[in-house]
Design goal:
Number of helices of chain B: 4
Strand content of chain A: 15-25%
CATH topology of chain A: Peroxisomal Thiolase, Chain A, domain 1
CATH architecture of chain B: Orthogonal Bundle
CATH class of chain B: Mainly Alpha
Number of domains of chain B: 1
Oligomer: heterodimer
Helix content of chain B: 55-70%
CATH class of chain A: Alpha Beta
Structural class of chain B: mainly alpha
Strand content of chain B: under 5%
Radius of gyration of chain A: 19 Å
Number of helices of chain A: 11
Order of helices and strands of chain B: HHHH
CATH topology of chain B: Non-ribosomal Peptide Synthetase Peptidyl Carrier Protein, Chain A
CATH architecture of chain A: 3-Layer(aba) Sandwich
Structural class of chain A: alpha/beta
Number of strands of chain A: 15
Largest sheet of chain A: 6 strands, mixed
Radius of gyration of chain B: 11 Å
Chain lengths: ~350, ~70
Amino acid sequence: MIKSTFNDIKIEAIATAVSTKWTPVEEFISEADEKNVAKFKKNTGVEGRYDAGYKQTTSDFCYAAAKKAMEHKGVKPEEIGLLVFVSQTPDYKIPATACVLHNRLGLSDDCMAFDANQGCSGFVYGLNIACGIMESSNIKTALMLCGDVSGKGHRRSIGEGRTDPDDNEAKLFGDAGVAVLLRKTESAPQLDMAMRTDGKGFKAIINPYGHSRHIHGMAASHMDGVEVFNFAIEKPPILIKELMADIGTEATDYDCLILHQANKFIMKQVARRSGFTSKQNLVSIDKFGNTSSASIATALTKYYGDENEGTIKAMMCGFGIGLSWGAVSAEIEKKDVLPLIQTDEYYDDGYEDIEPEILA
Amino acid sequence: MSEKEKLALLEDMFELEEGDLSADTVLDDLEEWDSMSKLSLIVLMNDEFGKKLSGDEIKKFNTVGDILAYMG
């Protein structure tokens, strides 16, 4: 495993932003499908999710979250030396969305800003990338922004917020953006991280269309459910156990296990195989759906967003598309996990939408 | 493990009553044989028999008997 340890970088704020529109699973399924709805809820754990507005993108949520995170610690824009945006739903094909956010947040030229394309492992990968760059540079304060509007990608263009009732993935995926504010400080609790990748599984979750190899596009991605499931219940537990063995911790040392909110059944298996109890296993998929790289933060926000006393010792693990997976052992102060942000604002970049027929 | 014990594991997994399944039961006739039960079968096969079940192997299962045979 790729192992990193950071002794002087602190997680100073974690903020999650979603829209104001929460859609229950029932809303887009006819009454005749009542049994299917019950089954879907039982199997995935999803009761509903927040839907991005028609014009809202991941970066709109990350922007709102970043503003709040900076406000929380009184950090000025010119102090941010690094902005990493981790997402599979960037604003544009080019340039990097990190540059758009750099502009919107009013950051200075003395800043590195770039995108990383990761999905469900994006939160932990993003932390590792940001901390690694901070460690080897004079950067004191950084923003790791991540999230996706995967739900939006699955909602067909029947009209705003409408869903194809047969598309289970549309019911599963929610939209959210996250900001993590990181700062170099001598009093930081140790951060330990472990990462892995298995490119043999690159086709397990893929949308091959609309880019250089297959130019013409298709809206939704394809997932090989059984392969992904086999991967998810096998590889992440091994990595979590290896990381704990390496740093000399045990499952009982942690207040919680925060897994990528893939679906409830997978999470249950991963927790059990990693030696954690179901009580330690935080679940936010019920209210947020599967929000890709934002999902670990949605769980932190759901459980600790309104608490201000004490510290959480957390084992966090993201896993999925790539295939890629990673685990982070961290201590976070509850007051630094901010309450849920809800916004319907979006950035008007001045461009008009092009109608699909003109594109064709 | 006896065939009866293996059947009991499957009945438990499908949330069926004892005696609901036999080796001749055709999987596609079972309402419970859905994508979720296939994932449950992967877990059961792994936990109880140490075997990793692939999507292709699942597709080859026609009857409950095929699963019992795979359990070995």
